[in-house]
Protein 1
Amino acid sequence: MFVVRSMTTVTAQPRPNYDPRLVAAAAAMNAGDLPRAEPLLRALLRDDPFEVRAIRLFAELAGRIGRYGDAENLLRRALEIAPDFTAARANLALVLYRTNRATEALAELERVNAEEPGNPGNANLQAAAHGRLGAFEEALALYEQVLRDQPLQPRVWMSYGHMLKTVGRQADGIAAYRKSLELQPSLGEAWWSLANLKTVKFSEEDLAAMRGALEAGDLEPEDRWHLDFALGKALEDRREPEAAFAHYAAGNALRRKRLPYSADDTAAQVDRAIVVSTPALFAARAGEGCPAPDPIFVLGMPRAGSTLVEQILASHSQVEGTSELADIQQLARGIERYPEALADLPGEKMRKLGEDYLRRAGAQRHTGRPFFVDKMPNNWLFVPLIRLILPNAKIIDARRHPLACGFSNFKQHFARGQGFSYSLEDMGRYYTDYVRLMAHVDRVQPGKVHRVLHEAMVEDTEAQVRALLDFCGLDFEPACLAFHETERAVRTASSEQVRRPINREGMEAWQAFAPWLGPLADALGPVLEAWPEVPAAFRSQSEA
C-alpha cells in the first residue's frame, strides 16, 4: 500500500488555536472510530465552514469508506480557501492516484514537491504514480534516490519491494521487504507482502517475530490484520489448517469492522441491472456506442484465474497487458440514475462514453499492439454498460469453483475495493450475485461473453487457450502456451504464479479448510450445488 501521510497528523500535537472538536475527531480517526469522528466534524464545519483543517480531516474520513468523489470535492474546497495548504494538496494527489488518475496526481505532486522538497512520503506516492502509468524505470529510480538520501524509511523500503515484485525482480523485492522489517519489525504489511509472494517459506524465527509483534499491546489495527493474514499463510504452508484459519478469521473480522460493505446493496444493484438489461434494449441500441475493438475485458471474481488469462493473452503479439483499470466503474458512477439511465441514454452519449474509456485507458498503453487487456474483476457488475458503449469489445469471464475461489479470497488481504471478501457469508452472496447477472447476460446477449473455467484451463491448457484466442479473433501463437516466459510487469497477487508453468498447486487447498467454510457454502446454496452449471432458477429468472 502506497501512503503519502495520514491527514490526522495535523492534530497529533494539539495547539491552543485548535478547536477541541478537531482534536477529538482526529483522535477518533486515529483509533479507527469513524462514527465518533463524523458528527464532531459536521458540527465544527456548521459553525465554521472555512476551517480547512476540518475539511481535510473530513476528506480523509470519506476516503477511508471509499467515497473518493466526496474526498476529492472536500480537498478541492480546502485548496480553494487556502491554495497554499500543501498537506491538502498532497492528500488530493493521493485521492487522484487511488481513483486511477495517476497523471493528474503527478501534476499535483510537482507543486507539492516544489513547496515541500525532500518529503519521503510525497516521493513514495510519486514513484507509485509512475508505476501505475507503467513507467517502472522512473519509479524504481525515484525509490532508489529517496532511499539513498533517507535510508531509514521502512515504508519506502516496503513500497520499493512492491515495485520490484511487479517487474519480476523477486529476490530484490524480498530483500527490500526484509530491510523494511529490520527497521520496523512490527510492520504488518511488510510481513504480508512476503507471504503474498506465495513463494516465501517463513522460518521459525519469522513465526516468532510475527507472534511477538501480535502480542504487543500498542500494535495498530492495520498492522494486526496484516500479521494475522501473514501468519495464516505461514501456518497453512505448515499444514496446520485449524491454526491457520483462526488467524485468517481474526484478520478478516478486524478488517470487516472498518469497511462499509453491504451485500444487500450489491444484490439490489444486480436486480436493477437485470431489469434494465433487456433484449429490447440491446436490439434498439445496436450500432450505437464506440465501434473500436481494442479492449479485451477479463472479469469475474478475484482469485479466479484472471491474471493467468491476462498473461496468456498478453503473450500474443497483438495484445498488450495493462492492469486492473477502474475506468469503467468511474464512468458508471458518473451516470446519474445508473443503471436505470441506460434505457434513456442517447446514442451519441453511448459513443462518447466508449471514447472516454479508450482515452482514459490509453494512459496505460505503451506499445503499438492493436488490442489491450483490462482485467478489473469487478467489471462484471458493469457488463451491460460495456456491451452498450463498446459493442465490439471482447468480454472474458474467468470462473473458478466457488469454494476454492471463496476461500482463496478469504485468505487474501486486498488493499481496497473488495469489501465482500472479509466475510464468508458476504463472499457467498457476492459470488451468487455475480453468477446471477452473468447468467442474465448470457440469456439477453448470447455468445457475447466467453467463459474460462480455471479447472479446465489447468487440465487441458492448449484446448482452452485455442478457444480463448479464437473468441478474441486472434490466431494461435505458441508463445501463449509459454506464457510464463513472457517478460512484463504484473501488478496482482498472482504475479509470481504466472511466471511459472501452469500447475495444479493450490487447486484443492480449500479442502483442508472445509470444516470452517459452512457459512460460505450456505450462502452459495444452489450455485454450489449446480457447479459448474448455472442453477436453473437463475436461467428462469432471466427468461421471465
Note: Residues 194 and 200 are 6 Å apart (CA to CA).
Protein 2
Amino acid sequence: MDLNKLHIALVGNPNSGKTSLFNCLTGLHQQTGNFPGVTVDKKTGSTRLTEKLVGNVIDLPGTYSLYPKRLDEWVSYRVLLNQDKDLQADVIVAVADASNLKRNLLFCTQIIDLKQPVVIVLTMMDLARKKGIKIDTDILEQELGVPVVAVNPRKNKGITELKKAIVDVAEAAGRATVADFIDTGALAPDPIGDFKKLFPCFSDYKSVHFLINHEQFELDAETQEAIEAIEVRNNFNPTKTQAEEILQRYGRIKEIMKKAVTEPSPLQKSQFTERLDNILLHRRWGYLILLTVLFLLFQSVFWLAQFPMDGIDYCFLQVTQFLTSHLPDNRWTDLLINGVVAGLNGILVFVPQIMILFGLITLLEDSGYMARISFLTDRLMRSVGLNGKSVMPMISGFACAVPAIMSARNIENRKERLLTILITPLMSCSARLPVYALLTSLVIPGHRVLGVLSLQGLVMMGLYLLGLVMALIVSFVAKWFIHIQEKSFFILELPSYRSPRWKNIGQTMVSKAKIFVFDAGKIIMVISLALWALSSFGPGNSMQKITSSYEAKLTAPGADSVQIIRDMHTARLENSYAGRIGKTIEPAIAPLGYDWKIGIALVTSFAAREVFVGTMATLYSVGDNGNEMLLKEKMRNAKRKDGTPVFTLAAGLSLLVFYVFAMQCMSTLAVVKRETRSWKWPLIQLFYMTGLAYLFSLLVYQLLK
C-alpha cells in the first residue's frame, strides 16, 4: 500500500447515491476514460483524506450483487475479486440506500464476506426518515462488523467522518475480521476445502466465486485445469450454490434488520411516491400524462427560446451592418462577414433551444419520472422486440445518439441491445434541432391552434414522434432477421420522486451548450470557412470571366444595376467549386424537391447534421454584403430559374422528413462500430436509414407539390 496515496473503490446498487458521493468527494478533480478492453466508462478522481494522504477514488459501475450479468457489472466484479490488473483497491466503500436497506445489504454483506477492508456508507437518510424508517447505525455497525457512516452528499454532511473511517480501515487492513454472514460450509464444503489448498489465503466466500467464475479470470492454464478438476470431482453445482447462498443471506439480513432498523407498519398510510404512482402509472391516464409531458416539452422549446433566439439574430444583424459600412469592400471583408460571422450566427442562434431541451430532460431525470417512462412503455417495447430498458437509450437519443448508444450496455439481452443500437439514431437528436427549427419556422406558418398552441411546436413534436414510430417499426421488422436466442427479463428500480437539483440542471444546460459551441461549433466553423472558399473560387479563370461579363453589362445605358449585381453573384456561385458539386448531385435529389444549394448542404452535413444551418448561412450570404435580411428571409425569397420559390411547403416538409430518417453523423457510425465490434451493423444502419430518408422524402414531395 502506498503510504501517500490510497486507492478507493466506490461500489453500490444503481440509484443508491454513489455518483453523488463521488462528485462530493472529488469535486472538480475528476477524469473520465474507459476500462481496458471494454467500452465501459471509468470515472476517477482524487480527494484529500488527511494532510499527507490523498485518496484516488474510482466510481465503479452500479451492480445489485456479486453475480454479474451485464458488461459493466463484470467490471465491478473483477475489481472486487482482485482480478483487474490495472486497479487494486486498498479500501472498498460500499454505498447503501437507507430507504431500501434490505435490498442494499445483500450486496454489502457479499463484499464484507470477501474479507477486504470495507466501509459501509448510508445515503438518503432524509428519505428514510420521511418513510418513517429509523436506523440505529451503532447497532448496524456492530452487526456488520465494519464501520457504518451516514452521509448526505448534497449537503456535504458526514464526509469528514467518512474520510476518517476510510483511513482507519486502511490502517487496520490484515487484522481479524468478522465471521461469514452465511454458512459457507453448508454450501459446498468439499469443493471449498479442496480449493483452499490451492489458495490458502482466500476466504471461503471468495473461493466460492472462483469456483463459479474462474473461466472469466486471467489464470494460467494449470490453475484453470486444477479448479476444473475440483468441480468435477465434487460435482459442484454453481446454480444450486448461488440459490442456497441468497436464501441464507436474506435470512441473516432479516435478523440484522430486526435489531438495527425500525420500519413503519405496512398498514400505515401510503407514501407520497406511491400515491403519485397510482396516477402517473395508471393503465390509461399514465399514457395520456406521458404524451402531455412530451407535448409540453417540445412546445416549451419554441415558447421559451423564441425571445433569446430573436435577440441573437438581431445582434448578428447589427454586427453585419456595422462591418459592412465600416470595412473596405474586398476579399478579406467578405471572408469575415460571410464566412466567420455567418458561421458564428449559425452556431449561437440555436444555443437557447439546446439548453432548454437538455434542461427539461434533466428535470425529468432528477424528479424520478424518467424511470416511470421505461416502466410504462415496457409492454409496447416488447411487442417490437425490445424491453422497457430500451426506452432510456432511446430517450437519451433525443439529446445525442453517441452516449445513448453507449448506455445500451445496461441491456442484458444481446438481441434487444443490438436492436436498440440499430434504432436509436432514428431518435431526433439535438443536432437535428437547428435544422428542424430553421425549416419549421421557414415553411410552417406561425399560427396558434385553438388560440394557444403553436402550430410550429405541433409540427416539431410530430417530427420527433415520426422518428420514434419509425424506430419501433424498424425494430419489429429487424427482430425477425437477428437470430439470437436468449431469455429476456425486465427488472427496474423506480426511484422515489424528489425535488430537482436546480444547480445540477443549470450546470447540465451550460455544459451541453459548451459542448455544442466548442465541439460541434468547431466543425461548423471549419466547414463554413471551407464553404466560403469553395463558393468564392472556381476552376481556372471562370470567375474572372463572369465578373468581367457582368461589369460590361453594368456600363450599358439604362442597366438595372441591382438586378445585374444579383445575377452576377448567382452566376459566380453556380460556377464555383461548391456550385459544381451541387450541380453534379442535383439530378439525384431533384425528385425530392431540392436544388443544388440544398445538395451541398446534404453533403457537408454528413459530418454533423447541424452543419446544414451553417452551410445555408454561408451559401446565401456569399457576395451579399449589402443585404440586411436574416437567413430565414433570404431562404424564403430564394427562387429557382423559373421564378418559383425553392422552399415551398412540399420541399420544406420533404427536407424535414429527410433529416428525421437520414444517418447524417460520422460519430454515430464510429460508436456503433465500437459497441458492436464490427463494421457490419453501422453499414446496415447507413444504408437502411439513407434508403428510408430518400423514399419518404420522395413520397412527401410528390404528394404535396
Note: Residues 526-704 form one domain.
Protein 3
Amino acid sequence: MIKVLIKSVREYKLASILSPVFVALEVVLECLIPFVISKLVNAIDVTAGNVIKMSEIWMYGGILVAMAFVSLGCGALAGAFCAKASAGFAKNLRKDLYYKVQDFSFENIDKFSTPSLVTRMTTDVTNVQFAYMMIIRTAVRSPLMMIFSLVMTFVMGGSLGWIFVAVIPPLAFLLFFIMKKAMPLFHRVFKKYDNLNESIQENIRGMRVVKSYVREDYEKQKFDNAATDVQMDFTKAERILAWNHPIMQFFFYGVLSAVLFLGSYFILKSNGATSVGEVSQLVVYGMQILMSLMMFSMVFAMIVMSIESARRICEILGEESTITSPENAVTEVENGDIDFSDVSFKYSAAAERYALADVDLHIKSGETIGIIGGTGSSKTTLVNLISRLYDATEGAVSVGGRNVKEYDLTALRNSVAVVLQKNELFSGTIKENLRWGDPNATDEELIEACKLAQADEFIQGFPNGYDTFIEQGGANVSGGQKQRLCIARALLKKPKVLILDDSTSAVDTHTDALIRKAFREYIPQTTKIIIAQRTSSVEDADRIVIMDGGKINAIGTHKELLGTNPIYTEVYTTQNKKSNDDAMVGGGDNE
C-alpha cells in the first residue's frame, strides 16, 4: 500500500525529505536547551556555596538565545516544507485517481459506483493528506524527541532514566489494542460514507422530481437515516480512540510524580552530588518524553483513521481497466461495416444469465439500421459492444472488417460516434460543448453539423447564439434541444458509424423525420444505427432489427415486418391508434 501511495509524491520528494531533516535539527536543539539551562541554573545556584560567575551566566544565556532562534527557524522551515509536501502529495493523489478513473471501462465503474469514487477522491484523499503531513513531521519529531530525551535522562539522571524506559512497553501494548478495536469500525464507516454520498447525489440530481411529488420530507428522513448510520459507527470508533488521551495523561502524571519523588530522594541522599539543576532538567526531559508520546498517540489516531482511506485509494490505483488497447493496435478504421458473430454477453462472470445471447448480425457500410424492442431487451447493450464500452463475453464483434479488440481504443471510438440514451452537456458555451466532437472544428463546421441535427434554428434564436452558456447538465435547454446538440456534437467527429440510442425521443416526429432525411442526404457513407421506441423513427431504415429478451427476434424492412412479426406489428398498431392525436402536436419539443 505504501509503495502505491508513495508514487504520488513525485516532485515533492525534496520537500518531503527536508521537512523531517529540519524537524530532526529542531529536536536536537530542543534536547540540548535543557542541558544548557541546567548549566545556567548551577551557575547561579548559591545553595551549594558556589560563587556566581557573570561570565558563565552571559555565555550560557547567549547560547540559549542563539539555540532558541535557530530552533525557531528550523521549526518554521519544517512546517513550510511539510505543508508544501502534504498539499502537493494530495494534489497528485487526486490527479492520479482522476486519471485512473478516466481509463476505466464501464465494467470498472460499475464495480465501484459513482458515489464511492467521489468519496475516495475527496474525503479519503483528505484523510491520507493529514496522515502524510503528520508522518513527515510529527511522526518524525515524536520518536526522535523521545530517543534524544531518553539518552539525556541517562546522561543527567543516571538510573532515573529507567523510569521512562519502563513506561514504553505497556503504553505500546495499549495503543496497539486500541488500533485493533478501532480499525474494523472505520472500515465500516467509510462504506456508509459512500451510501450517504449516494443519497445526496441522487437527491440533488432528482430535485425536480422530488419537488413535483412533494417528497422532501421523505428525502430528509432518508438522509437522516444515512447520516445517523455514519454517526453511530464513527462515534463508536472515536470513543475507542478517545482512550488515547486519558491513558497518556495517566502515564504522564505517574512518571512525573516518580521522577520528582526519586529525584528529591537522590538530592538528599547524595549530599550535593546530584544538583537541583540536573533534577529540574530531568523533569523537563521527562515532560518532553511524555509529550512526544502524546503527540505520537495523536499521529497514531490519525493513521488509524487514514489506513482504511489509504486502502480504498489503493483499490482504485491498483485497478486495471478491463478494456485496453492491444500492442501494435490498428489505428485506422477502414469503413462502417459491422459484424456480430455468435456474440453473447453478460455484465459479470458471476451473472446467471446472458444479457445478449447468440447474436448474429451483419451490417454493410452506409446502411441505416433501426433497432426496436421492449424495455430490457438489451438494445443499448448490443450497440455498446461496437465501440468497446464493454467487450463481448463470447463470439466476436468486428468493425471495418477487423475485430474491435485489434483497434486502438481512441481510433475506434473516434470512428464510432455514440449519442447515448442519457444525454450529457457540460458547463460552458454551446461552441465549447460542440467541440467535444472535434476540438479543431471551425465555426462553419459547427453550424453545418447543427443544421443537420436541426439545432441551428433554435441556437440562432438565443441572444448570444453559439456563445450561449450551457449550465451544468444542460439545465437551461429543453430535452429536445439537448438531444439535438448531442447529435450535432457526434456528427462533428465525422464518424464511420453513428449510433443514436433513443436520442430523438424528446423531439417531435416532424423534427425527427428532418434529422433522418438530413442523414440520408448528407452522410450516406456513414453507417447509422437508430435505437428507437417509435416505429416512425425507423420505418424508412434499410433494415429493422427486433430485439426480445437479449436475442434477435427478427430482421427485415418495415414492410416485411409489418403483419408478419407480432412484436413489430403490435408496437406499430398501438402507436398508430394515436396518429390523429399526434398529428395535432406542433413543432415543439416533447419534454
Note: Residues 580-588 have pLDDT under 50 and may be disordered.
Protein 4
Amino acid sequence: MENHIAFFEDYILRKTFGLKRFTQDSPVFPEVWAQYFLAKKNDRVDLILTPHRKYSSATLLVSIRQALKDFNPTANFVTAPPFWHLATSGEMLAVKLTFEELVHVALPMTSWWQNYLWDKSNKKASDQHGWFSDLVKAISWFQLQQGPDFDLIQTQQGLLSEEYKNQPITPALQEIKPQEAPTPLWAVSWNRRARISMYRSNRTIKAEPSRRLFDIDGRGITWAVIDSGIDATHPGFRAFDPVKEQAYQAPFEPNDRQPNKTRIVATYDFTKLRKILTNLEGAILAENVKTKNRFKKIIKTSDLTQTSDNQNNKLSGNEIRTSINDIEKSLKNGRDLDWSVIAPLIRIPHRDINQYEPPKHPHGTHVAGILGANMALTEGKRSGTIVGVCPAIEIYDLRVFEEDGTGDEFSILAALQFVRWLNRQKDQPIIHGVNMSMSLKHEVRNYACGRTPICEECNRLVGQGAIVVAAAGNAGRSLFTLESGFKDEGYRDVSITDPGNAEQVITVGSTHRNKPHSYGVSYFSSRGPTGDGRLKPDLVAPGEKIVSLYPDEMEERLDGTSMAAPHVSGAAALLLAKNRELIGEPGKVKHILCSTATDLNREKYFQGAGLVDVLRALQSI
C-alpha cells in the first residue's frame, strides 16, 4: 500500500512544463490527496485541520460545523450522531470528510482558495486553478473506478494516460472567484496512525547505585505516561503507608477521604474525547426537545459512564449535562476548549476496584513499570523482583491508544495540550516530564522533518518547561524487495519516527539490557540522522528483554525502544529529585544526560551521545 501512496504522491507532484515539482502549494498535504485517491466515492478520510493563526480552533469548529450542516441539510443530529466526527483538541480539529466535503466545504475557508486560485490582476484562473482542477478531476475519476472489477495497477495506468480528462469539473470549482470572506483554515493533514512501538537494566544505567548513594527515589517528581494505559491496581504501583510502613494493601479504599492509594495520580482516557465532542450538539438538541432516552444513549455512546471529579467521585447526570452545555457555549462564543470542564468527563475514577476501568492493552503498564515500579514493598513470593528507575515517582496515566493498541495523532495532540494546560494552573509544574513510547512514521513528502503537528506540540511543551522523552522507533532493520523481486533484510538509516524527530525532545534508541558494550545498538533500533540532517537519537538505553509489570498483577519480558525511553525518563526524574533547581529547565537536563553518557564506540547516528549514565549525570552537578 505504501508503494501505491508513493505513486499518487508522485502524480500529485508531476512535471509542470517539463520540470518535476518536489513540493506543492495547496494547504492540503500530499498524503491527504493520496488517501482520497484510494478512497471510494463518499468514503470519509480522517483529517486534522490546523486553524489560521488569526483564528481560534473554536471559531474554525463552529464555522466548519455549520458549513457541513448546510452541505448535508437532511442530517438529523437528534436521532443520529454527526457522521463527520468533528472534534477539537483545543488547538487543532479532527474531522472525517468525503472528497466532496473537502472541496466544497473545507477548502473555501482557506486563504489559498480565496487568493491563489484566481489571478486578480487579469481576472482569470491562475496556474494553481489549473493544477487543482486537474487533480480534482483525477481523484473523482479514480474513485468512480473502484467497483467490483477494480484493478489498482490498471487504473493507475489509466491515470497516467489521462483517461480522467473527460471527467466533468465539479461545480465548486466553477464558482471560484475573488472574494472577501473569513479564512479560518490554514492546513489539512492526515490524522496519522500511531503505534506503540528490569532488574539488570537498572544496573546498566547505574540507577540502583545512584539511588543508594544520593538517597533519592524520585519522590516529589511527577511524570505523565502517554500510552495505552496503566493498570493502577498492580501492586507495583502501590503508594507507601507511613503508619504501617509498608505498601497499602488495596489500591483503592472507597470510604476513605482520599480513596486512591496508588502512585498513579489520575487516569485520563483521551480516546473518549472525540466521541464526546462528536455527540456534543446532538446531546444538547436531544435534551432541548425532551428526548431523554436519546440523551442517555448519547451518554453511553460517548463512554460517559466513567467520569470523575478531582476527589474521584463519579459525576451525576446533571453534572454531565451542565458540562456538555458549558463546552458548547464556549465553542459558540469562540473560546477554545476548556480543559477544566472536559477533563472530568474523560477521567476514570480511582475509588472502587469493582468499578475501575483497567487498560485492555499491556504496553503502558510495562512502560510505567520500567519508570516507577516498586515490588520491594509488596509482600509475597515476588517481593523485590521488579524495581523501576524511580520507585517513588508519581505518574499520570494518559491513555491515547485503544484496547487493540491502535491510536491516532489527534488523541496524542490532545493529551500533550492537556499537560500544557495542567502545568499552567500552578506556579510550579504539576507534571515535570512526559514519556512517549510510540511511533508515527515521518512522511518526508508531506512535512519538514521535526515540524509535524506532534513534533511541534512536543517542542511547545518543552518550551513551557516540561521534559519530553520519546522512543526513536523500531525501524532500524526492515524487509526490502529488490528489483529482481527477491526479498532481503537490511539496515535503514534516517529511520527515526515521530515524535522522536522533534528537536527539543530526548530521543532514545535501544541497546542490550546488561551487555551494551558487547552488543552495541539493538538491530531494531531506528537510526539517524533526521531527514534534515540533525543528530538523532540523543541517547540509547536498555531495550532488549526488559522485564516489567503487566496487567493483572503479572510481569513480562518485552523488547523495543518503547522499553528504552522510560529508562531515560527515570534518569531525568532522578536528576530533578536531587537538584530541584533543574525543574522547568528541560534543555539543561538534556545537556547533562547527553554530556555524561557512556560512549559505546558506535556510529553517532546509531548511539547518539551514548548509553545514559545516571550516576555520572548526578555526580556532574
Note: The first helix runs from residue 2 to 12.
